[in-house]
Amino acid sequence: MNNLIQAFYIGFGGFLGAISRWLVSKTTSGWLGAFPLGTLLVNVIGSLILGFVMYSVSYGKTISPEFRNFSTMGFIGAFTTMSTFSYETVRLFELKDYGLFSVNFVTNVVLCLAAILAGRYLAMVLFK
């Protein structure tokens, strides 16, 4: 695959991922007060999708390089947000909201790792 086509797949996936992230954040804003639910949701959903796509290949599913680049580097790369999670977590700490700081930190880390494992399990069930 030539580099221009590869860049197109990644860019289009990134466009869709960024718009999706914006929609999730806009929709969930304020649902749990100051807790950054939108960031948690995009990171967990993105981790699930990434785990599924990457482990599908491990279990024998053929995924084209175009789709892999579109979904992982493009869509998930723009959809998920480690930097926003990091900023929001530090900001909660600075505001001395140690309860939300702790909940945000633990739920993001634990649920994102669990989502990768869930994606792996789903890929195993479907493709192994």
Describe the structure.
The protein is built from 5 helices and no strands. The protein has helices at residues 3-28, 37-58, 65-79, 82-94, 98-127. Helix 1 runs parallel beside helix 3.
Primary descriptors:
5 helices, single chain, mainly alpha, globular, 128 residues, 83% helix
Q: What is the rounded Rg?
A: 16 Å
Strand content: under 5%
Distance between the termini: 28 Å
Total separate domains: 1
List SSEs in N-to-C order.
HHHHH
What's the count of strands?
Answer: 0
Tell me, briefly, the overall form. Answer: globular
Short note summarizing the structure:
With 128 residues, the chain is mainly α. 83% of the residues lie in helices and 0% in strands. It starts with a helix and ends with a helix.
List the helices and strands and how they pair.
Blueprint: H1 3-28, H2 37-58, H3 65-79, H4 82-94, H5 98-127
Helix pairs in contact: 1-2, 1-3, 2-3, 2-5, 4-5
